[in-house]
Design a protein that fits this description.
Elements: H1 3-10, H2 31-38, E1 83-91, E2 95-104, E3 113-117, H3 128-137, E4 142-146, E5 154-155, H4 168-186, E6 194-199, H5 201-212, E7 219-225, H6 229-236, H7 239-245, E8 249-250, H8 253-262, H9 269-275, E9 280-282, E10 288-290, H10 301-305, H11 308-314, E11 318-323, H12 331-338, E12 343-346, H13 354-357, H14 359-373, H15 384-389
Parallel strand pairs: 3-4, 3-6, 6-7, 7-11, 11-12
Antiparallel strand pairs: 1-2, 2-4, 2-5, 8-10, 9-10
Helix pairs in contact: 1-6, 3-14, 4-5, 5-11
C-alpha cells in the first residue's frame, strides 16, 4: 500500500462512506416488517411516460394537503426532467431488461446530451438539481439520467429470474444499452454529442464505458465525481460498519430526508428532497426501507474500482475529475494530473455527493468542459489545394 493510500485511510472523509450517521430512529420494525424489507419493491407496469411509479416514488409520495409544510417535503421528478422512460429489450446474454431513465432531450440536433450514472445505492434523481441548473445555463442541452439494475432498472435471466449480476461489465453493458435504447425510443437518426458523467460507482461505469466504445465518434469526453481507485479500495473495508450503523427503515419519508440532511450525507436540503424519496419503498407496516440492499453488492466492490485509475487515463475522450478533496488522489492520477492528461476541480465545501451539494458549480464546470472539447466549434485552416485554386501563394 502506498504512503498516499495510508494517509488517506487516516483522513476523515466527507462521505464515502458518508460521515458517521446520527442515531436517528433507533426503534427497529417488528420481525414481520424486517422480513418484508428483504423483499424487492413491487414491479411497475406503468407506461413509458408515467408520472408516478413504484420504481420512482417521487410521483406518489407527496404528503396530503393537510400535512404541514416542512423543509423535508419531497418534490417530484417533473420539476427537473421532461420525461420518464421505461426501455424494454430482449438481451442476448441476459434475458429481458426493463430499464428506467429520466430524460430532457436536447433542444437542437447540434446540442449535446449529458448522460449521468448514479452511485451505489442512489438513483437517477441524484442528478435532479444538476439537470435543472444545467438547463438554466444552457437551455438547449439535453440530460439523460439512468438507473442501474437493482436500483430502479430490472434485468431478468432467460429463466425469468432477477439477474443480480452487479459486476462492472454487466453495469457497463446496461449503461450502453440505455443510451442506445433512448436513441431508438426518441427516433434520433444519430446520437447527439455525448458527455458521460458518473458519481462514485457511476464514475467507474462511465470510465469502463470509455474504454469499450466511442459511440460512433459521438463521445466528447467523460467526467468522474469523487471516486479514485486507491481511495475507494481503502474505504471499501469501512462499508460494512457504515451499513450496519445506518437506519434500516424510517417511519416517514420526511424522516428519511431529514436523516440524510442531519447526517450530512447530502448537504443540500433541496437536493435531498428531490433524490431521497426514490431510494425507499413503503412496506405493508407503513415504514419506509431501502430499495437497494447495499450489503448484497459487497462481492462486487473490488471489481468496481480495481484498475480504474489506469482506465481513466487511457479511455477515449477528454477527461474531467471532480473531487471533494485532494486527499482522494492516488499515485497514478497524481502523475497523470501533473502531465496534464485530465482536468481536475476540487470542491472542498462539498461532501461525497458533490453534484447534489453544489449542483450549480458542477453544472458550470460540465458546460465549460464540453465547450472546451467540442470539436464541432473548431475553425480549421483552408486546405492548401483550395488556396492554390484561388491563385494564392502558399
Amino acid at each position: 500500500m502506498s504512503d498516499l493510500a495510508k494517509s488517506f485511510a487516516k483522513t476523515k472523509l466527507s462521505s464515502f462512506p458518508p460521515e458517521a450517521p446520527l442515531p436517528e430512529y433507533p426503534e427497529e420494525p417488528p420481525a414481520e416488517a424486517e422480513a418484508e424489507a428483504e423483499a424487492e419493491p413491487p414491479a411497475s407496469d406503468d407506461g413509458d411516460s408515467s408520472s408516478a411509479s413504484s420504481i420512482s416514488s417521487t410521483g406518489t409520495v407527496v404528503p396530503s394537503d393537510s400535512a404541514p409544510a416542512k423543509p423535508s417535503v419531497p418534490v417530484s421528478w417533473t420539476d427537473f426532467f421532461a420525461q420518464e422512460l421505461y426501455l424494454e429489450v430482449q438481451l442476448a446474454n441476459y434475458g429481458r431488461a426493463k430499464y428506467h431513465v429520466y430524460l430532457t432531450p436536447p433542444a437542437t440536433p447540434k446540442a449535446p446530451l449529458i448522460v449521468c450514472h448514479h452511485g451505489a445505492g442512489s438513483s437517477g434523481l441524484s442528478f435532479s438539481l444538476f439537470a435543472k441548473e444545467l438547463r438554466k445555463m444552457q437551455p438547449e442541452y439535453g440530460v439523460l439520467s439512468v438507473e442501474a439494475r437493482d436500483h430502479g432498472s430490472t434485468v431478468y435471466t432467460p429463466c425469468g429470474e432477477l439477474d443480480n449480476d452487479l459486476s462492472l461489465d454487466a453495469l457497463t453493458q446496461d449503461f450502453i444499452h440505455m443510451i442506445e435504447l433512448t436513441q431508438q425510443k426518441m427516433g434520433w437518426s444519430n446520437l447527439p454529442s455525448l458527455i458521460l458523467l458518473g458519481h462514485s460507482l457511476g464514475g467507474a461505469v462511465v470510465t469502463h464505458t470509455a474504454t469499450k466504445t466511442h459511440f460512433g465518434g459521438k463521445l466528447i469526453g467523460y467526467a468522474v465525481i469523487d471516486v479514485v481507485e486507491g481511495s475507494a479500495l481503502e474505504i471499501v473495508v469501512q462499508m460494512r460498519s457504515y451499513l450496519m450503523s445506518r437506519p434500516k427503515s424510517f417511519p416517514t419519508l420526511d424522516a428519511a430526508i431529514e436523516w440524510h440532511i442531519r447526517s450530512r450525507t447530502i448537504r443540500n436540503p433541496t437536493s435531498a428532497r428531490a433524490s431521497v424519496p426514490s431510494l425507499l419503498f413503503q412496506m405493508p407496516s407503513g415504514r419506509w426501507t431501502w430499495k437497494t440492499d447495499l450489503s448484497r453488492t459487497e462481492p462486487f466492490w473490488h471489481d468496481w474500482f480495481s484498475g480504474m485509475s489506469d482506465k481513466f487515463l487511457v479511455g477515449k475522450g477528454a477527461k474531467l475529475l471532480l473531487l471533494a478533496g485532494t486527499d482522494r488522489l492516488d499515485k497514478p492520477l497524481m502523475i497523470g494530473q501533473m502531465q496534464g492528461k485530465f482536468q481536475m476541480q476540487v470542491f472542498p465545501a462539498a461532501g461525497h455527493f458533490v453534484h447534489e451539494d453544489m449542483p450549480e458549480k458542477t453544472a458550470e464546470l460540465v458546460v465549460e468542459f464540453y465547450k472546451r472539447n467540442d470539436r464541432s466549434t473548431l475553425v480549421l485552416p483552408p486546405k492548401v489545394s483550395d488556396l492554390l485554386k484561388q491563385g494564392k501563394k502558399v
